[in-house]
Design a protein that fits this description.
Elements: H1 4-27, H2 30-51, H3 61-68, H4 76-86, H5 109-136
Helix pairs in contact: 1-2, 1-5, 2-3, 2-5, 4-5
Length: 138
């Protein structure tokens, strides 16, 4: 049985986080927009895993999708977006992620737009799978 309440709890946070990423992008805080987009994608995949009753460990969206792929078919495009987002988990937050300079100096609007698009695509995919599960009564 699909746990709708647990799914909703996590997917709402994913959507909220993606909106925050949009605000950061619009304010010129591109590194934070990228990190938050990664978080939104991670939360969305975890939402579906928890909805299906599967424990979700770690922060790599690609690795979480590997677990999910044992239950459902996942398009290559979703894995591609996951790999893009996984690159934004550590570097935006840690000054020593780059040899010199601060993380925010290495991010631009294009990076933020790409990351937000990736997260939005993953969220939409997850929502579609969840809606199918709910309709089928799984």
């Amino acid at each position: 049985m699909f746990d709708v309440e647990e799914f909703k709890r996590w997917i709402k946070q994913a959507e909220y986080t993606l909106k925050s990423a949009e605000r950061d992008k619009n304010s010129g805080d591109y590194s934070w927009a990228c990190f938050k987009a990664q978080q939104a994608g991670e939360l969305a995949v975890k939402a579906l895993l928890y909805g299906l009753g599967i424990m979700a460990y770690g922060h790599s969206i690609k690795k979480l999708l590997d677990v999910l792929s044992k239950e459902i078919e996942i398009p290559n495009e979703i894995f591609r977006y996951a790999r893009i987002l996984d690159r934004h988990y550590i570097p935006p937050r840690y000054p020593d992620a780059y040899v010199e300079g601060s993380p925010y100096e290495f991010y631009g609007i294009e990076d933020a737009e790409e990351a937000i698009k990736a997260a939005n695509t993953i969220i939409n995919f997850i929502m579609g799978v969840a809606n199918d599960s709910i309709r089928k009564g799984h």
